[in-house]
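<amino_acid_chain>
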Amino acid sequence: MQDHVFEQLTAQAAEAEVVSFDVFDTLFVRPLCDPEDIFDMVGERFGIPDFRQLRRAAQTRAFQTMHANRLNEITLDGIYDSFGRSPVDPALLKQAEYELELALTLPNPELADWFVELCRSKRVVITSDMYLPQEFFETLFAKHAFPTQPLFISSARNATKRDSGELFRIVAAEMGVTPQQILHIGDNELSDIRRADEQGLATFHYVDSRRTRLPTSVSTPVASIAYGLPRSFPEPIEPGSFEALGFEVGGPAALSFLHWIRQAAERDSIDLVLFTSRDGYVLERMEKRGDAGEFPRSVYFRSSRTALTLAATDETNFEARMPFLLSGAQELSPFELLERIGVAPPADHVMRDLHLGPEVRLNDRNVERFRSFLWAVRWEILKTCRTVRAGLHTYLRELGVTDGMRVAMVDVGWNGTTQEAFDQALKGLYDIELFGYYLCLTEQPECNRRKQMLRMDSLLSARSLGKVAVERVYANRVAVELFFSAPHAAIIGYKFDAAHRVHAVEDPGRGNTEGLSTTVGSILRGIERYGAYASALYRTVGVVPEPLEVVKPLLSFVQSPSTETRELLSTVTNFDAWASSRNRAMRLDEYLA
């Protein structure tokens, strides 16, 4: 809630003798896109695929019975008494719905603390149109340690707000005040505002901006929770911040990917999972916390496409590596080509004598000069490659890799270049069965070629998602990669210290990266907070987080990043260390489609 709106609410409450709170979507929220998604959860639990329709029909019949008996409100008992023939005892269905409502009705973080504080200085009441029994509200308030207040529940009072505002008249009479002395706070334009106004109450229309951003409908309860969960998260996260972006988008992406990896690893009888840096940083942390259940042994693999490609490079294939060495190098100076692979460039005066000083930048017209330069310094590059290869061998031994193992390397995507480099680097080092697990694999020709040679699988693919949707994910891949970064620089190789211990070599990039580590840290914090909270919630309500459903907030994000998100991402510069240069600054939003 914006500060000025909250100040207005506080001022109105100060003038009232009694403050009345609506419950659902006001004082409490459900982490769902639609409250009726609970019906689908009940249906899934009991194997009744059309339970939502059956439940709606029963509620309609309960209203018909209510009118026939000249009553003013339905009850949960009345709904299930109207169920008719059912494959499951209606009493069991009713109990399941009741328990799910209790589990998923959570304090609204925008109002909860203020409500508790207000109860110390004001007369406060709870006024709700709801078929759930009064016992539900008593249990709900006790569960969340909310102070006990007078309850005016339509199912218990046989009176509603929505029809004629009769429930508001009961509140005024029992509290011994005039309607004008009551402030009612609620979200429903009709029952909470218009009807309260008609009865003379002061009103405050509570609008939850988090709810207005939710999709109008989703396919499953799992997706509903994935989208709706930020509404109920009890800890503060600044709206529109990088942490919020990590929580709302990166969190579902990472959690879904992690669950998919666990399922794939079980299917493939994996002995060791390598969470490749930097993509696997947050995944490995979430796995160690148990956010996705039981895993095979897993480690954070400090490596990269660059390090593995160098390890697989020797004099026999050096020329074939030229496209790799020149990739993403537009506007880079010659010495920057060497810096980004961990090779010390010649002295400046030597470079200038070669007419390749720092002022020279790679473009389409001089690419052959750059190619000739790399060929001229190939022995220095190959010396680094040999060191990296030896370091990789030692490092893998330290990680417990042995011949015959089934090893899965985890990477965000997109075309399997890192896995191919690893496969080539392993030749002559270890004889293992290598699997590649990706968030997304494309239908690019180079990717399809590798799929024929390597064991590659992904959560998002043309098969699981459709070709058009995968192309959209790939078009905004740099933004997706931001969710799978790490608070350290990119790994580009390995080196040995005096004691022959191996260490990873990092590439800090060449452009201005001021604030990047803070940005990444905020995003990762949001992702980890989401993972812990969502995992606990899914377990509480007994819903299995199907990966293709949990990932849907990410798919919505890549489909159409909002103007606000684009503005936020425009503050991130030189995120891609490989393509970074002192000669220019690349804003992340420039990569967005």
The CA atoms of residues 100 and 541 lie 7 Å apart. Residues 318-376 form one domain.
